[in-house]
Each structure stands twice: as C-alpha cells, then as structure tokens.
Design a protein that fits this description.
Helix content: 10-25%
Amino acid sequence: MAQAVNKGGGVDLLGAHVTLTHANHSSSYEGTYTGESCGFIVEAPDLPTIYFAGDTNVFGDMALIRRIYAPGIAVLPIGDHFTMGPREAAVAAELVGATRVIPSHYGTFSLLTGTPETMRDLLPPDIELIAPAPGETVAL
C-alpha cells in the first residue's frame, strides 16, 4: 500500500522506518517541476542507520541529520556536475558523522567526473569508503 510522506515525516515500510530529509537540489523531469528534492533515512532493527542523501550538494544542516539520526552509513553523490563532487562529499561525510560512506551518482556519463578514488583521498582515515562496482551488492 502506498503512503504519502513529506520532509521530516516518516513511514513504516517493509520492517523499517523511512524518514524524508532535506536535499539541496533542483527537481524537474523533462522541463516540468516535480516537487522538492529529498534524501531519506532508513532505520531497521539490527542494521546500521543509513542516510541516502539523494541528489544534493553539501549543506550545513547535514549536522542535524547526524544529531538526530546518527547514521552509520551515508550514501553520498560525488558526480561533480549535477550534484556535489568528491571534495564536498568528503565534508558531507564528516558533517553526517557516518563511519562508512558509499559514493553514488557518478561515472554513468562523461559530465559526471567525480570518482571514488578522489573522494577516498579526501576522507579522514576513520571513515571507510565502500565503492562497489555497478551491480555489486554490499553487506551491511
């Protein structure tokens, strides 16, 4: 059953609780406005809390996501054209406080120049970068 949700609100879904968060990005499809961009938090029993930033740049309120949800894993875009790049994503990782980061939104076409290797060099040593190959799964 589909459930409507909005930023700051949450729903129980498939044994997890999903809460929408702010993302700082445009939102359109074929020139039509499609609503506000969002990220989301997934909290599930016996799993680390995961923050999916969505398409966004880094913004200071990511520190609130750390304070409220304390995610152990952050999925952050690094494409560096339509979203933040590796430099900004490294700062986002610190603001969010996750100990593991999975890069997203990169390498699918030539405009997206950010790479996991670039981000790895910018992260503090206490943050693990997990960069699976396309289609590869990751055990949490």
